[in-house]
Amino acid sequence: MIELYLLLIFMIIGAIVAVEIRSLLSSVVAVGVVGFALCVVFFILRAPDVAITQLIVEIIALVILIRVTGIKRDVTEMRGEQRELITQGVSVGAVIALAVFFFLAIRLLPEFGKPLMSLSKDYFSPLIKSGAINRVASVLLDFRAYDTLGEATVLFTAVVGAIAILRKRGRKKVEEEDREE
Amino acid sequence: MKEGMTVIVKTITRFVGVMIMLFGVYIVLHGHLSPGGGFAGGVLLASGFILLTLAFGKDVSLKILPQWLASALESVGALIFLGMALLGFAGGFFFLNLLPKGEAGELMSAGIIPLCNIGIGIKVGAALFAVFMVLIMLRIRPGKEE
Predict the structure, then answer these.
(1) Which tens digits make up the pLDDT trace of A58-109?
(2) CB-nearest partner of B104 from A59, A131, A168
(3) Rounded to an integer, what is the distance from CA B70 to the centroid of its chain?
(4) Major location, coarse class (chain A) (predicted)?
């Protein structure tokens, strides 16, 4: 269990570095550190399905993020004295409220690992109901297939939205309108 | 102007790119037997194409998988998954696994689960590739970004 805590501390340090560092590329690398450490954490917790997905998605996300850092843009900091104070106050208040409710909710949860698999007993019964040896696949695509359908819909919508915003035709029209003004 | 990266990257990509895509297909097809599944395999397939794009330039990968084909494949994958779900109505309710289960552990087993995995794999792979290509196109026009 000690390696798990070491990895979690490592991830927290990586996240703080990613937020605080000045160079964009170093920040992206620090984000990658957090993601890959999370992948190792999943392996330690014996969830190879999630670990594989996390690893591959992290690679693609890093490629896209590193590509984004190459774009030359005005990234000068925006500072407003009063507004900054308000924003900080609001965020600190939100964090405190979240922490209070989180601790209240945690007290109601059952102890970790107890009772043993009361909810998922049927999914992991020795009799294989769905016919799939990989129990994660049988939960994802048989017992809880509605969740997967929702997830697929979310991804579909996200991709359609991204293509609609970034496609050439849409951008051209906006540029022409800008010129007319 | 020569597109893409150096000859070292191109040579390695020739060997590794095929293996990455093959591994993606393996992960999708064995989703009901070993860790992995439609989503992970689909992202692997997309990452193979992304490696091809980065190494050889966008024209090479667009020749293999044009933009319109990627969009069409995404819809086809989603329709396969939805079709498998609707197939359950033949036996009673949505997402009913009514195809023959076969023997557990065989490649041809588990009813609709492998078919759903294939649908999700096609959908996710084509979708991520399409998004990446759209992002690549954005960079081609310097000085016109708002």
Answers:
(1) 988 898 888 778 766 555 555 556 667 888 889 999 999 999 999 888 888 7
(2) A131
(3) 9
(4) membrane
Helix axes A145-166, A168-180, angle to 10 degrees: 40
Q: Decide if A78 is inside a domain.
A: no
User: Exposure string (b/e) for B26-45, b if CB count within 10 Å is 16 or more?
Assistant: ebbbbbbbebbbbbbbbbbb
Structural domain of A54: 1-71
Counting the structural domains of chain A, the total is 1
Cβ atoms B143, B118 nearer than 8 A: no
Q: Is residue B146 pLDDT above 50, yes or no?
A: no
Separation of alpha carbons B22 and A18, rounded Å:
35
Dump pLDDT digits (tens) for A162-172. 888 877 665 55
Rounded to an integer, the average pLDDT of A111-125 is 67
User: Which residues 71-110 on chain B approach chain A with CB closer than 8 angstroms?
Assistant: 71, 74, 78, 81-82, 85, 94-95, 97, 101-102, 104-105, 109-110
Question: Has residue A105 been placed in a domain?
Answer: no
What's the predicted TM-score (pTM) here? 0.76
**What SS3 state is found at A10?**
helix
Residue-wise pLDDT for B11-37, tens only, equals 888 889 889 989 988 988 888 788 888
Which chain B residue lies closest to A143 (C-alpha atoms)? B95
A138 in a structural domain: no
